[in-house]
Amino acid sequence: MSDHDPTDDPRIDESTTATDEPEPATDGGSSQPGTSDDADGVDEESKQDQLEEVRENPEGEDLTSDHGVKISDTDNSLKAGERGPTIMEDFHFREKMTQFDHESIPERVVHARGTGAHGYFQPYEDPDLGDEYDDLEEVTKAKVLTKPDQKTPVFTRFSTVVGSRGSSDTVRDVRGFATKFYTEEGNWDLVGNNMPPFFIQDAMEFPDLVHAIKPEPDDAIPQASAAHDTFWDFASLKPEITHMIMWVLSGRALPRAYRMMQGFGVHTFRLVNDEGDSVFVKFHWTPKLGTHQLVWDETTKLWGKDSDFNRKGLYDVIEEGYDPEWELGVQLFDEEQAEEFDFDVLDPTKIVPETEVPVRPIGKMVLNETPDNFFAEVEQVAFHPGNVVPGIDFSNDPLLQGRLFSYQDTQLNRFGSANWDEIPINRPVADRHNNQRAGFMRQEINEGKASYKPNSIGDDDPQEVPAEEGGYEHYAEKVDGTKIRNRSDSFEDHFTQARLFWNSMSEPEKDNIVDAAHFELGNVDRMEIRERMVYDLFNNVDHEFATRVAEGIGVDPPESPGDELPDHDREDPSLSMENRTPDTIETRKIAMLIDDGFDDDHVSTLKSALEDEGARVKIVSKLLGEKSGTDGETVDPDKHHVAAASVSFDAVLIPGGSESVDAMRQQGSPKHFVAEAFKHYKPIAAVGEGTDLLEAVDLPETDIADDGDLVSDTGVVTCRNDDLEEFAEAFRDAIAQHRHWEREPEEVPA
């Protein structure tokens, strides 16, 4: 749990509590926060107060059975003599073993590998909704979005999609981004992903998509990967998938951290106001720390060295006192605007470009508390897009419509009971009263004789609630049509937005997409599948892109652009991650490499300077145990070479001290650490004699300081004098850029 006391948000009134966070760094739009925690009903602590009733702490307590009987021996089963058979009457053995045998529940078919944390959501006081609307209450009656004096407790779960529960965090995959809001009006589940489009247009296709992308059924290979024949066979025959494939091949599928990952509601939803009027809405989560990626070589090494990388990253920053923050934004547009778009807003393979409808920030989410029990909270949390509150409703998106059935059905399978909503992590903090009273593992004890409506025995309680008093009422959309299995012609354009995405990428991002396609399709055995992807899909996105992919996978490059290539060169700057890099190094993890004989002043001064900027500096040495500096100061390393790797850090720093640097020059690990960080485009810095280690590594085409002047070259910052303030500032600026894509690291042997 976090004990961090963040600085006050200048946009929040002084009456807010000390848990409020600094102003989010976003890509546009102005926003105002809430002003008070004095709201009636639900507040930030409501869910924790409820969970406190079911928490158990064994400290200082006696060991008992599940039924409260004190146990004298839990190591030996009851036997007929010391060497005799175990006796059936050993109730403690049977209870203990039965609990163990049944302590797992079926893992999720998709999104099995997950991580979650508690926090709160707070609307802004006066969000800027542009010229169309003065106030959010004009478009929705949802109190969770419109009451700035209230912090609503939330639980957010991040996940990979394809892999099993034991797979690695850093595989190339879509990431789930699901948030359960415990509102005063009931639970609202915003169940989305870190990419705004989806693979398919209709929920009917979802079982086929998952069967294709999962391990192949004959040998159960590969795990947590799309790089095999069945997925790309499916994809090559589904042009609608093209837009999503572009996102999956990009760095969006390799997030640096959950706290540096966008989230999207994917579908078009509706907001409904008190008068019953509706507008369409797209939901966006924007991370305060920017949107950043890993590189492919990093991810493959992390599979073995730190397979829990993203999970640990989320928990570490919260427990070290940094509370990750996201801004919730909305794109609002009415039916008339939707008709004017050159795509169908009900098509989940499409986005609403921010160049057409800006994202308007309306509130913030802060995650500030880690789970007490991973199984009880992260594994048992169950989401359902059908969990909405008054003021939020659905569109006719055929994928969303299918999910409204599928999620409830999935929870019934996982938990074996319709009472999954009674598990503490899933229970609303709002009051619950209805006539559901039975079923497997029922928790509530419902009083009274009448469990039906209408009834006279119980005065017809519980009573229905009119819409004007807060009862949920669906938007009164007129529906009239012939029963038909067909798809609208407005869903038929599969390449316009895929081309928009490609056009919006920087050159390094395009290189990453091509490299990803080489890896993915390079693992496809059947030539006809590779050819279909190049000729039928990629060549209708961009001819150069298709040619570059073909050259890497043994396919003859197409001679001319595809017949369905869109005739546009539009771009949307918001789609490039390079445009989502705020000027901050908060929570960045810096490795400081030392050995005995380090420069005391370098270590203490630079560590303090970086930590003052919000970075997390970890001392790395050959062995654990106290290390001595040149002036007699000592430090205890946080990591040693066997357990530390550059892929787990954001940047590398080598302080001076001739004895320390000489020792590291004789060791392979520090030199590999630096070379590997350079290969992954990460910031590297060395001061004083520390520059000698960089020269020993021989970084290609990189200038290293010689007689004192500070040099900053493609993210490599070096200085031989003792102007540590200037050096620290230059290194800080290099870290804030995240990656230095202008390097040419191919020659680096790492």
Automatic annotation (TrEMBL):
GO CC annotation, single: cytosol
Gene Ontology biological process? hydrogen peroxide catabolic process; response to oxidative stress
Question: Which keywords does this chain's UniProt record carry?
Answer: Heme, Hydrogen peroxide, Iron, Metal-binding, Oxidoreductase, Peroxidase
Catalysed reaction equations from the record: 2 H2O2 = O2 + 2 H2O
Q: Which InterPro entries match?
A: Catalase, Catalase_AS, Catalase_clade2, Catalase_clade2_helical, Catalase_core, Catalase_haem_BS, Catalase_immune_responsive, Catalase_large_C
- Name the family the entry cites: Belongs to the catalase family.
**Stated name of the protein:** Catalase
Q: What is the originating organism of this protein?
A: Natronolimnobius baerhuensis
